[in-house]
Amino acid sequence: MNNRYYPGLGVMGTKWNYLQKFSVFFSFIIFIFFYTPINAYVIPGPHLLELMIKKLGTEKSLLISQELLLYDVSAEKNIVKLKETLKYNFPEKFRSDIQSEQTKRIYVFSLGAALTVIDNKIVSNTETRFDCYKDVFLYRSGILLQNRLSLQGVDTSVSSLGRFQNKIIYVIGAKNPDQSVSRIWLDKNTFQPVRWIIIGKGNKSSGDVLEIRYGNWRRTNKTWYPKHIEFYHNDVLVREIYVDKIKINPSFSDEIFDIEHLKSVYPDVSQVEQDKDDSQGLRDIQKTIKEFKKLYE
Description:
Blueprint: H1 7-34, H2 36-39, H3 45-56, E1 61-71, E2 79-89, E3 93-99, E4 104-110, E5 113-118, E6 121-124, H4 135-138, H5 142-151, E7 159-164, E8 167-172, E9 183-187, E10 193-199, E11 209-220, E12 223-233, E13 236-248, H6 259-265, H7 281-293
Antiparallel strand pairs: 1-2, 1-13, 2-3, 3-4, 4-5, 5-6, 7-8, 8-9, 9-10, 10-11, 11-12, 12-13
């Protein structure tokens, strides 16, 4: 049909061609936005950890005051609120002190060993996964952090890109969207950790997943630290931390981090139990609640 005799068809054809070109262009933009970033070159995991450590700061020690909230998952549904003081002595020494009207709790992690003291008695020589949240701040050496994460099941040789809360993030430990392994998520722009997922030991189908979320990052001098930390067990909120004050480079006595010294001071009444089943998540929660209940009962 000759458009010379039907001029309207020429106009319609032009509009149709324009719409086709616009549709192709729009599809290309959608492809670039949703596909390319997730499949682009990804920085190797060890280098990402070095960038994360560099971003956190170069201080030698930290003193942190915070409020700790524990949500009881039992039928009692209690909420425990406690004031906690943290002492970081980089790169491998950490101490937590909680003082209530009734009693006090000391938790020390030093050079890979752990110790918990309640009422002037050693009640535990082990740590739970809830204690691991501090690892991303404590280890200011890439090699030390890699080794520590490896013990928690994170394969730092694997990295990929993903999305979390509408942001592009780096995933260390998994090829996104693999959800079967432990992994750490870093903000793509700041390299700050935003999420750490720890899969329970043993049978992965048992449903034992601890998720730690780091949020509300704030800078004190040249040091970055999250003011809000959340803990989810199988998608249920079980613990929160709200940071109040941060002091940079305080002086600490080596003695307060010395586990052997603490063992010489406090009697050991702990009964260390080996993992006998595939799931440790609820046991970790119950152990933590049991310990902290002693501080407010």
